[in-house]
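hey so i finally got around to running the thing on that chain from the lab meeting. sorry it took forever, my laptop kept dying and i had to restart like 3 times. anyway pasting the input first so we r on the same page abt which one it is
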Amino acid sequence: MTPTDTATHTPTHTPTDTATHTPTPTSTHTPTNTATNTATSTNTSIPSYSPLDVVINEVAWGGTTASTADEWIELYNNTSAAIDLTGWTLKASDDVPNITLTGTIPANGYFLLERSTDDLTVSDISADQFFTNAIENSNEPLTLRDAASNVIDTANGNGGAWPAGTASPTFCTMERINSLSADSDSNWQTNDNLTRNGLDASNNPICGTPKNLNSASVPTATPTLTLTPTTGASPTPSNTPTATLTSTPFPVGIVINEFLPDPARDWNGDTSINSDDEWIELYNNNAFSVDLSGWKLDDVSGGTSPYVINATIPAHGYLIFYRADTKVGLNDSGTDEARLLYPDDSTADSYSYSNADDDESYSRN
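ok and heres what got predicted. didnt touch it at all, straight out
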C-alpha cells in the first residue's frame, strides 16, 4: 500500500470592523479599524499499514560458517509500492535486539539487516541496515511494528524454539514458506542448502538466500515433468507445466546436472549414432518452476554459438538438450567446458573437463 494520509486544515477568520462618526456638519472624524486574523495549522498523521504488508522473511539466527555472530534478518515487501520504514521497529520480546528501522524497502523487494558494522556478514551483498545485539538461539520471538506501533508481522511468535533453521555445522537459515500467510511454526522451513545466495565473511556459500527468493517459497504451479537420460531412447516429457513462477530475473538453483560429450549409442532416437546424440541435462533445485527463456547453453572450445533456451523447467525437475537441436558441440578430447548462462551472458553454472570416454557422462554429485 502507498501511505497518503496527510491532512491539512487551514481555518481563516477575518473580522473587519469599520466605523465612521461625524459629530458636526463642519467637522468629520472617521476612525477606521481593520483587524485581520489568519491562522493556519497543519496536522500530518503517521501512516498506518496492514498486517503482512511487510514480513520477516528469513532469519539467520545461527550466524554463518564464518562466525556465529554474523547473524542477519531479511524483510520482504508484499505490496506493489515502496514503503518508507523510518520509525518502524523490529525487536525481540526482551528488547534484545531492538532495532529502529530507517530507509525504504522497494515494492515486492527485500531489506537486509546485518549484525555488523563492516557490511561483511553477507560479504557480496550490501546491507540496508546494521544492528549490534545478538539474536538468541532459542525462545526469541521477533515483532515488526510500523511507525504507528501497529503489529505488522512476527517470527517465532509463540516464543518457543526456532521452528526452522540450524546452527553448527550447516548454519542454514529459517525461511518463510508463504509470505502472504501469517507467522506459524508450519509456515517456516530450513533452507535446503541447494538454493543459496551470497557469501559469508570468509567467502563460504551461505546456506540461505539473502535478498533472493527462498528455497521454501510456495510455487504457483505443480508440474510433474521429469526427464532423466537412461539407455538408448530419448526421454519424453510426461506432462506440461500449466503455470510458471518467475519471481526474480535470474533465479538461483538451476544447474548443469549431467552431460555426455562422446555418445556411443542413439541417445536422441533418430536411428543414427553420431555427435548429434551429445546432450546436456539441467536440474531445478527450486520448489517452483522457472521460465528459462533467454538463458543459454554454451561450451568454451567448440567454436559454436550459444544456444538460446525457450523452455520452462519444472520444480525439482529436469530438462535435456541434444546437440541435434542446440548445435553446441562438446569436445571429445582436450579441455572443454559446459556452461549455462543467464540472459545477460553471466555464468549461472559451468563445469570444465579434460577428455571424454565413449558413452560416459559427467554427472553432478
